Fold GDSL-like Lipase/Acylhydrolase family protein.
Amino acid sequence: MGAKAYFAVAAAAISLSIVAATPAIAAPRAAENYVAMGDSYDSGVGTRTYDSSSGDCRRSPVAYAPLWAKANSPASFTFIACSGARTPDVQKQADQLTSSVSLISLSVGGNDVGFASVLTSCQLGSDQSCFDKVAEAVNQARTTLPAKLDATYSKIKSKAPSAKVVVFNYPRLFDLGTCGLGGLSKAKRERLNQAADTLSGIISGRVSAAGFRFADLRDRFNGHGICSSAEWLNGLSWPINESYHPNTNGHSQGYLAAFKAAIG
Protein backbone atom coordinates (compact mmCIF):
# COMPACT_ATOMS: atom_id res chain seq x y z
CA MET A 1 0.00 0.00 0.00
CA GLY A 2 1.38 3.39 -1.01
CA ALA A 3 1.79 6.24 1.48
CA LYS A 4 -1.17 8.18 0.11
CA ALA A 5 -3.43 5.14 0.24
CA TYR A 6 -2.29 4.31 3.79
CA PHE A 7 -3.00 7.80 5.07
CA ALA A 8 -6.39 7.85 3.33
CA VAL A 9 -7.42 4.57 4.99
CA ALA A 10 -6.15 5.78 8.37
CA ALA A 11 -8.07 9.04 8.10
CA ALA A 12 -11.25 7.19 7.18
CA ALA A 13 -10.85 4.86 10.16
CA ILE A 14 -10.32 7.78 12.54
CA SER A 15 -13.37 9.53 11.10
CA LEU A 16 -15.52 6.44 11.58
CA SER A 17 -14.34 5.97 15.16
CA ILE A 18 -15.22 9.56 16.00
CA VAL A 19 -18.70 9.16 14.52
CA ALA A 20 -19.23 5.89 16.41
CA ALA A 21 -18.14 7.44 19.69
CA THR A 22 -20.42 10.45 19.37
CA PRO A 23 -23.61 9.89 21.40
CA ALA A 24 -26.96 10.34 19.73
CA ILE A 25 -28.32 13.82 20.22
CA ALA A 26 -31.78 13.89 21.79
CA ALA A 27 -34.52 15.64 19.88
CA PRO A 28 -34.70 19.27 20.96
CA ARG A 29 -37.48 20.04 23.41
CA ALA A 30 -38.54 22.84 21.08
CA ALA A 31 -39.94 20.10 18.84
CA GLU A 32 -42.32 18.84 21.54
CA ASN A 33 -46.05 19.38 21.45
CA TYR A 34 -46.82 18.95 25.14
CA VAL A 35 -50.20 18.45 26.81
CA ALA A 36 -50.51 18.38 30.61
CA MET A 37 -53.68 16.55 31.63
CA GLY A 38 -54.99 15.06 34.86
CA ASP A 39 -56.36 16.05 38.24
CA SER A 40 -55.59 18.55 41.01
CA TYR A 41 -52.12 17.13 41.60
CA ASP A 42 -51.30 18.12 38.01
CA SER A 43 -53.20 21.41 37.93
CA GLY A 44 -51.27 22.75 40.91
CA VAL A 45 -53.81 22.86 43.72
CA GLY A 46 -51.82 23.47 46.88
CA THR A 47 -49.52 26.12 45.39
CA ARG A 48 -51.99 28.91 46.27
CA THR A 49 -51.31 30.66 42.95
CA TYR A 50 -53.80 30.15 40.10
CA ASP A 51 -54.66 31.46 36.68
CA SER A 52 -57.96 33.24 37.22
CA SER A 53 -59.18 32.14 33.80
CA SER A 54 -58.96 28.48 34.85
CA GLY A 55 -61.85 28.82 37.32
CA ASP A 56 -62.51 25.80 39.51
CA CYS A 57 -59.84 23.80 37.67
CA ARG A 58 -57.29 25.87 39.62
CA ARG A 59 -54.40 25.68 37.17
CA SER A 60 -51.24 27.13 38.61
CA PRO A 61 -48.37 28.79 36.72
CA VAL A 62 -46.01 27.25 39.27
CA ALA A 63 -47.20 23.65 38.84
CA TYR A 64 -44.61 21.28 37.39
CA ALA A 65 -46.01 21.32 33.84
CA PRO A 66 -45.85 25.09 33.17
CA LEU A 67 -42.48 25.19 34.96
CA TRP A 68 -41.15 22.60 32.53
CA ALA A 69 -42.70 24.38 29.55
CA LYS A 70 -41.22 27.72 30.60
CA ALA A 71 -37.74 26.22 30.88
CA ASN A 72 -37.88 24.21 27.64
CA SER A 73 -40.00 26.31 25.25
CA PRO A 74 -41.78 23.43 23.48
CA ALA A 75 -43.41 24.01 20.12
CA SER A 76 -46.77 24.03 21.89
CA PHE A 77 -48.03 23.65 25.43
CA THR A 78 -51.62 22.91 26.39
CA PHE A 79 -52.55 22.86 30.07
CA ILE A 80 -55.90 21.12 30.64
CA ALA A 81 -55.46 19.45 34.04
CA CYS A 82 -58.39 20.17 36.33
CA SER A 83 -59.04 19.92 40.04
CA GLY A 84 -61.48 17.13 40.90
CA ALA A 85 -60.92 15.20 37.67
CA ARG A 86 -61.77 11.50 37.65
CA THR A 87 -61.10 9.00 34.90
CA PRO A 88 -64.21 9.98 32.85
CA ASP A 89 -63.10 13.63 33.04
CA VAL A 90 -59.60 12.79 31.86
CA GLN A 91 -61.10 10.80 29.00
CA LYS A 92 -62.95 13.99 28.03
CA GLN A 93 -59.67 15.90 28.31
CA ALA A 94 -58.23 13.38 25.86
CA ASP A 95 -60.69 14.60 23.23
CA GLN A 96 -58.38 17.61 22.87
CA LEU A 97 -55.43 15.43 21.90
CA THR A 98 -54.30 15.03 18.28
CA SER A 99 -51.82 12.86 16.46
CA SER A 100 -49.30 15.73 16.54
CA VAL A 101 -49.02 15.61 20.35
CA SER A 102 -45.62 14.19 21.29
CA LEU A 103 -45.54 14.51 25.09
CA ILE A 104 -48.27 14.01 27.71
CA SER A 105 -48.26 14.02 31.51
CA LEU A 106 -51.02 13.16 33.96
CA SER A 107 -52.15 11.60 37.20
CA VAL A 108 -55.61 10.20 37.79
CA GLY A 109 -57.32 7.68 40.04
CA GLY A 110 -57.30 9.27 43.48
CA ASN A 111 -60.67 10.93 43.01
CA ASP A 112 -62.18 7.75 41.58
CA VAL A 113 -61.62 5.95 44.88
CA GLY A 114 -62.79 8.89 46.99
CA PHE A 115 -59.49 9.81 48.56
CA ALA A 116 -60.69 13.30 49.53
CA SER A 117 -63.53 11.85 51.61
CA VAL A 118 -61.09 9.35 53.13
CA LEU A 119 -58.85 12.17 54.30
CA THR A 120 -61.82 14.09 55.68
CA SER A 121 -62.97 11.04 57.61
CA CYS A 122 -59.49 10.44 58.98
CA GLN A 123 -59.11 14.07 59.98
CA LEU A 124 -62.39 14.18 61.88
CA GLY A 125 -62.98 10.63 63.10
CA SER A 126 -61.40 7.96 65.28
CA ASP A 127 -58.55 5.71 64.22
CA GLN A 128 -61.01 2.87 63.55
CA SER A 129 -63.37 4.98 61.45
CA CYS A 130 -60.34 6.13 59.46
CA PHE A 131 -59.20 2.53 58.95
CA ASP A 132 -62.68 1.51 57.80
CA LYS A 133 -62.84 4.34 55.26
CA VAL A 134 -59.36 3.52 53.99
CA ALA A 135 -60.37 -0.13 53.56
CA GLU A 136 -63.36 0.92 51.43
CA ALA A 137 -61.14 3.03 49.19
CA VAL A 138 -58.53 0.29 48.85
CA ASN A 139 -61.24 -2.19 47.88
CA GLN A 140 -62.48 0.20 45.19
CA ALA A 141 -58.93 0.68 43.96
CA ARG A 142 -58.42 -3.04 43.60
CA THR A 143 -61.78 -3.97 42.11
CA THR A 144 -62.94 -1.07 39.94
CA LEU A 145 -60.01 1.23 39.25
CA PRO A 146 -57.89 -0.98 36.93
CA ALA A 147 -60.58 -1.09 34.23
CA LYS A 148 -61.12 2.67 34.52
CA LEU A 149 -57.41 3.33 34.12
CA ASP A 150 -57.20 0.95 31.15
CA ALA A 151 -60.04 2.77 29.40
CA THR A 152 -58.44 6.15 30.09
CA TYR A 153 -54.99 5.14 28.87
CA SER A 154 -56.51 3.47 25.80
CA LYS A 155 -58.34 6.69 24.91
CA ILE A 156 -55.13 8.69 25.25
CA LYS A 157 -53.22 6.21 23.09
CA SER A 158 -55.89 6.26 20.39
CA LYS A 159 -55.90 10.06 20.19
CA ALA A 160 -52.11 10.58 20.37
CA PRO A 161 -50.54 7.28 19.25
CA SER A 162 -46.99 8.61 18.95
CA ALA A 163 -46.86 10.54 22.20
CA LYS A 164 -44.52 9.82 25.08
CA VAL A 165 -46.92 9.52 28.02
CA VAL A 166 -45.73 10.04 31.61
CA VAL A 167 -48.11 8.96 34.37
CA PHE A 168 -47.50 9.96 37.98
CA ASN A 169 -48.56 8.07 41.06
CA TYR A 170 -49.40 9.95 44.25
CA PRO A 171 -46.73 10.59 46.90
CA ARG A 172 -47.08 9.22 50.39
CA LEU A 173 -48.57 12.17 52.21
CA PHE A 174 -47.10 11.79 55.67
CA ASP A 175 -43.91 11.72 57.62
CA LEU A 176 -44.22 9.44 60.65
CA GLY A 177 -42.41 11.62 63.18
CA THR A 178 -44.06 13.85 65.77
CA CYS A 179 -46.89 15.90 64.31
CA GLY A 180 -48.08 19.25 65.60
CA LEU A 181 -51.49 20.54 66.58
CA GLY A 182 -54.21 19.23 64.30
CA GLY A 183 -52.03 16.47 62.92
CA LEU A 184 -53.28 12.93 62.43
CA SER A 185 -52.23 10.12 64.74
CA LYS A 186 -49.25 8.03 63.69
CA ALA A 187 -51.54 5.04 63.18
CA LYS A 188 -53.73 7.00 60.76
CA ARG A 189 -50.74 8.32 58.88
CA GLU A 190 -49.27 4.84 58.53
CA ARG A 191 -52.53 3.44 57.19
CA LEU A 192 -52.95 6.28 54.70
CA ASN A 193 -49.38 5.85 53.46
CA GLN A 194 -50.02 2.13 53.01
CA ALA A 195 -53.11 2.94 50.98
CA ALA A 196 -51.06 5.29 48.80
CA ASP A 197 -48.62 2.44 48.18
CA THR A 198 -51.47 0.14 47.17
CA LEU A 199 -52.80 2.75 44.77
CA SER A 200 -49.30 3.26 43.35
CA GLY A 201 -48.96 -0.45 42.67
CA ILE A 202 -52.26 -0.53 40.79
CA ILE A 203 -51.40 2.55 38.73
CA SER A 204 -47.92 1.24 37.96
CA GLY A 205 -49.31 -2.06 36.67
CA ARG A 206 -51.81 -0.44 34.34
CA VAL A 207 -49.23 2.10 33.11
CA SER A 208 -46.88 -0.75 32.24
CA ALA A 209 -49.65 -2.62 30.43
CA ALA A 210 -50.37 0.51 28.37
CA GLY A 211 -46.72 0.95 27.45
CA PHE A 212 -46.52 4.35 29.13
CA ARG A 213 -43.85 5.70 31.50
CA PHE A 214 -44.41 5.55 35.26
CA ALA A 215 -43.05 8.47 37.31
CA ASP A 216 -42.76 7.25 40.91
CA LEU A 217 -42.80 10.14 43.37
CA ARG A 218 -42.42 8.22 46.62
CA ASP A 219 -38.64 8.23 47.02
CA ARG A 220 -38.41 11.87 45.97
CA PHE A 221 -40.91 12.92 48.64
CA ASN A 222 -39.28 10.86 51.40
CA GLY A 223 -38.45 13.23 54.25
CA HIS A 224 -40.74 15.90 52.82
CA GLY A 225 -44.17 14.64 53.85
CA ILE A 226 -46.67 16.36 56.10
CA CYS A 227 -45.23 16.54 59.65
CA SER A 228 -41.63 16.65 58.36
CA SER A 229 -39.30 19.58 58.93
CA ALA A 230 -39.24 20.35 55.19
CA GLU A 231 -42.78 19.77 53.93
CA TRP A 232 -43.44 19.53 50.20
CA LEU A 233 -47.14 18.91 50.89
CA ASN A 234 -49.73 20.96 52.73
CA GLY A 235 -51.30 19.55 55.85
CA LEU A 236 -54.73 20.69 56.96
CA SER A 237 -54.96 24.20 55.49
CA TRP A 238 -57.21 27.11 54.80
CA PRO A 239 -58.83 27.37 52.30
CA ILE A 240 -59.59 23.71 52.86
CA ASN A 241 -59.03 22.71 49.24
CA GLU A 242 -55.32 23.55 49.64
CA SER A 243 -55.01 20.66 52.11
CA TYR A 244 -53.15 17.45 51.29
CA HIS A 245 -51.70 18.69 48.00
CA PRO A 246 -48.12 19.46 46.90
CA ASN A 247 -46.93 22.99 47.64
CA THR A 248 -44.60 25.01 45.42
CA ASN A 249 -41.55 23.03 46.58
CA GLY A 250 -43.40 19.80 45.92
CA HIS A 251 -43.89 20.87 42.30
CA SER A 252 -40.54 22.51 41.64
CA GLN A 253 -38.38 19.94 43.44
CA GLY A 254 -40.49 16.78 43.50
CA TYR A 255 -42.78 16.58 40.49
CA LEU A 256 -40.57 18.49 38.08
CA ALA A 257 -37.55 16.32 38.88
CA ALA A 258 -39.59 13.14 38.45
CA PHE A 259 -40.96 14.39 35.14
CA LYS A 260 -37.50 15.22 33.80
CA ALA A 261 -36.22 11.78 34.81
CA ALA A 262 -39.17 10.04 33.17
CA ILE A 263 -38.85 11.74 29.79
CA GLY A 264 -35.05 11.38 29.70
Notes: The two ends are 47 Å apart (CA to CA). The first strand starts at residue 33 and ends at 36. The beta strands are 33-36, 76-79, 103-106, 164-168, 213-215. The mean pLDDT is 90.
